[in-house]
Here is the input.
Amino acid sequence: MRRAYGYTLIVVLCWAISLPTGKALLLAERAGERLTPLQASFWSIGVGWLALLLVLAMRGRLGTLRAITGRGWLVLVAMGFFGWAGYVVALNTAFVRIPLPDAIVINYLHPVFVVLFQGRAFGTVARAISGWEQSAVPAKRPRAWPMAAGLALCLCGVAFIVTDGRLAQLASLRLSTGALAALFAAFSWGVYSNLGRFVQVRAGTEDGGLGDVQSWLAMTFGLAMIGIGLAFGAGPGLPSGRETAIYLGSRGPHLTSAWVFVAIMGVLVYGYAYSLWLVALEIGRRAGIAHRLPPLTYLTPALGVLIGLVVLHEPFGPAFWQGAGLIAAGNLVIALGRSGGRSAET
Here is the structure.
């Protein structure tokens, strides 16, 4: 149980660093030209793919690929679409279109989706794809009313952010591409986090411990999908020669190479934190506390916004705090609403 909490806190720190780092990569310029969200995703995920492949090879883990069944591979393709081609590209699109604090907070509806998809409906669909039998440890989630109330609070928080606190504008508002991208990123992460427990392995395989292998395989499929998109678009581009102005509080600007941000994203986040998150969820599932881990990740946006303010001078106003408070309250309602909740078939 302690390991699940400890791993989650490490993941939170890595993700908090990754948020302003991802924005910094997209701000890197060479002769006024920047990387597109698809290009930035390709390079950072590619470095993470290589780093994780090296770790798996050194640990002799590549042989475990044979333990995954044919139906399990279908789940991994879906994880590649949602967790890598979906989540990463959508979040990068949000970073380009709207201010960093707004993109971070809207994206942090994902603890709601992670808990929501622990229920019976998601499990039914996932088992139809994977052939996975009912889990020996039933997941638990809040009753319907805390789920509905928490989601309503979160959506009100999004409304405050996208209207800058002027809710009357909702009647004529068309959500921006950036806000929609951040919402889709939250949805995709909820799907990805729950699909990991439906990857079927062959009989006799040691239960658990495949989080790193799952991440690498899902990353492989996601990277291939992004590569196909680039092949029909502007091409992969190159981070070489691109730089971003970074501050240390009031000191700066310091021009920093885009390759630095690619390395941080690839090694620290995609090569390490993603796998650790799946491991934490698996440990939490066995201990019956998996529902308590996603709300802890709400520490990430607070740290991410603070780091963004320090190193990128990303501003935010009163409407941001109102929206952030409502989204935090929504996540809290869902987290506490688990008490007395019913078991959910997974």
The first helix runs from residue 2 to 27. Residues 2-344 form one domain. Strands lie at 29-30, 33-34, 139-140, 243-248, 251-257, 343-344. The first strand starts at residue 29 and ends at 30.
